[in-house]
Amino acid sequence: MNDMNALRAEVDHRYKIGELVEKRDDLAFLECGKVDIPDVLVYLRDHQGYVHLSFITCIDRLEEGQFELVYMLRNHEAKHDLGIKTYIDRENPVMESTHGHWAAVATYQRELREMFGIEFPGCPRVEESFALESWEGPPPMRRDFDTKKYSEETYFPRPGRETNDPADHMKKTQYPGRADL
Amino acid sequence: MKTKSVKTVLPNLDLPESDKGYFCDARPEAVEPVKGIWENFLNWARANSLWILGFGTGCGAIELRPLMTSRYDMYRFGIQPRPTPRQSGLFVIGGYASVKTLKRIVRSYEQMQGPKFVLGLGSCTVNGGMYWDSYNTINRLDQYIPVDVYIAGCMPRPEALLAGIKTLQKQIMAGEAEGANDYARNFDWYKANQKKIIKDWNMPDYNW
Amino acid sequence: MTLWGQIGAAALSIFIFTNFGFLLMGSMAQIRARVQGRIGQPVYQPYIDVIKNNARRTAIYHGVMFYLGSVFRLAGGLGTFLFIPVVLGSPLFANFSFSGDVFLVMYFIFFGQLGMALGAGQSGHPYSPIGVSRGLAQMTAFELPFSLAVIALALKHHSLSITTIVQAQQGGIANWTMVTNPLAVIAAVIAFLGMSMHNPFSVVIAPQEIPIGPPTEYQSSLLGMLQTNRAIFNAAKLVLYVNLFFGGASAADGIIYSLFDALLPMVPVWLGVISGVITMMVKSFLLYFVTVFVGVSFPRFRTEQSIRYFLLVPTLIGLAGLILARI
């Protein structure tokens, strides 16, 4: 679509950023250093038309020992989505709070703190629980949290429950004797 | 009025001292049904005047709404929704119950006046359903409040809900639906289960 | 009649008209259901509900006023009923009517709601005061056209006694207030829509919503008491309206009599009384049917809308009725 490479050059001119990955005509991702995130967001919002923050999400890169944070921005005039990615340390997950840029950020950061244990110092109400009340275990969306084990230990599983793989179950019950499936 | 022994008074330990005066500290007591024709008559009235607590606890609550429409028309069985737990006698748990919701479920259930009945709607209340390994969803509802009828399915159709209510009516008329007394007799067991998963117990032990 | 005879007669008429009120509620729920294309609850469903509520094994009390709230409410319903003569010319169904009783009855219509306000206040539930404030606001608003209609009647008949007003309406439909002063009757019937709290004025009890109105905290036998009162109060309001505006019911001029006109000298007195009671019930049913008819046809007003409506349209009609009475 529009000149995303020019935009990348514009941003790169000011901040150190990684390669541009264009997924679709209307969706692209930029990688960016952790410390530059607030500045890059403000620059994109104020000068490039990415005025809308769609969401902030986190991906647990357990193997690399990192959390990947994605800030998804939307340019309504150009009808273009831009994701700003950054990596933070998994052992000491602290990220600078950007609640001053968009009011909604505080809520996303509250959720990220609850689900992944990422700290956002200075964010309003970040200590309050978001979806989980009185959660005492480790952050449940981390990949090293065994949710099945936790559920079995906590919630009195009813004995006798059987779990079937849908594909195998369908083969057995609906199409018995079909070797080609 | 200190006629009761100390043992029957609930401590309400988790309430702040200033709030304790607002809440009752008496334990629930089982009320024995009177036997005979009179109780059968009352049970008939109870079975034919089930008032549902209008508290949609999960996705299954959407199945309650069609019951009011002319297609299913639950009013012909004497069933009607009621907005307050004080006046309702039937609690339909619609599907999955997260820990956060369970806290409200327990509170609402305890505010209902006995005899009260619970209907577990959907597989999630039976064994967790598709949320059986979730970190935040209970697996078995009957560990926390007594359940009279379960309806399996994900989601059961309104017809299934009506069939479940008819089953419950038969149970009530047979005098088998004594969930409230069951709750009062096994109060400590239920309360221990509830407190095991509701960590911030900032409410009275029994809500009346 | 002796005092005990009077009390017994009053108990009989209360019994008959309580059951009448229950059956009226049940049958009207049926009619509403049929309008909505449903089968609807059985006619005897109000009885089952009352039995169920009274048979609850546990109950909670928030204090003396909370308990007295439903007692006051019931007293308001009974008081309204007890001072209205049901059948003219029959001592059995005259209740405790006396000259000037229309004032007392108007007070008793208000009394139950005030008692309820006290009880609901002690329950401490935040939704109860919402219902009470809505109820009292609407009640104050519909009292105005109703009072204007009653004053028009009092001006016309120079009396505040229901018995005198009914007496003046005997002798055919041409003497009914409905014909002699139609404007006052229109104002009063619109006020009756608000009094019976069906749509479009049902926001007070707001059935099946979060604030169910004043009785949010009431349960078990206290709720059963309120339901019983609803039946009595319905019957009492209907009897009052039929008496004031629709000719009332007379032991000597009932429906059965008109069927057997030639036999009039031969029929015994008790048949006249029964005929009067049946006349009253038929007229009440038709009057109540008006509120149900309006109720299923119109959506609900908000409180401020209904107050504005009551203070404007029926009040002006009532004032016109007042002028009509003076002409």
Give an overview in words.
The complex is a heterotrimer of chains A (181), B (208) and C (327). Chain A has 181 residues and is an alpha+beta fold. Chain A is 28% helix and 24% strand. The longest helix of chain A has 12 residues, at 105-116. The mean pLDDT of chain A is 88. Chain B is built from 6 helices and 5 strands, in the order αβββαβαβααα. In chain B, strands 3-4-5 form a 3-stranded parallel β-sheet. Chain B has a two-stranded parallel sheet with strand order 1-2. In chain B, strand 4 (117-121), helix 3 (123-127) and strand 5 form a beta-alpha-beta unit. Chain B has a single domain (34-197), classed as Rossmann fold (3-Layer(aba) Sandwich). Chain C has 327 residues and is mainly alpha-helical. Chain C has one domain. Helix content of chain C is 69%, strand content 0%. The radius of gyration of chain C is 20 Å and the shape is globular. The model of chain C has no long low-confidence stretch (mean pLDDT 86). Classes of the chains: A alpha+beta (181), B alpha/beta (208), C mainly alpha (327). The interface between B and C is medium-sized, with 27 and 34 residues.
Comma- or semicolon-separated keywords:
heterotrimer; A: 181 residues; alpha+beta; Beta Polymerase, domain 2; 5-stranded mixed β-sheet; 24% strand; C: 327 residues; mainly alpha; 12 helices; 69% helix; globular
Task: Write a brief structural summary.
The complex is a heterotrimer of chains A (181), B (208) and C (327). Chain B is of the alpha/beta class.
N- and C-termini, Cα separation of chain B: 18 Å
| Structural Rg of chain C | 20 Å
The main sheet of chain B comes to:
3 strands, parallel
What is the count of distinct domains of chain C? 1
From the spread of the alpha carbons, the general shape of chain B counts as globular
Query: Largest inter-chain interface?
Result: B-C, 27 and 34 residues
Query: Could you tell me the radius of gyration of chain B in angstroms?
Result: 17 Å
pLDDT < 50 stretches of chain B: 1-6
Oligomer: heterotrimer
Q: Helicity range of the residues of chain C? A: 55-70%
Q: How much helix, percentage-wise, in residues of chain B?
A: 25-40%
Strand-pairing-aware structural class of chain B = alpha/beta
Number of strands of chain B: 5
CATH top level class name of chain B: Alpha Beta
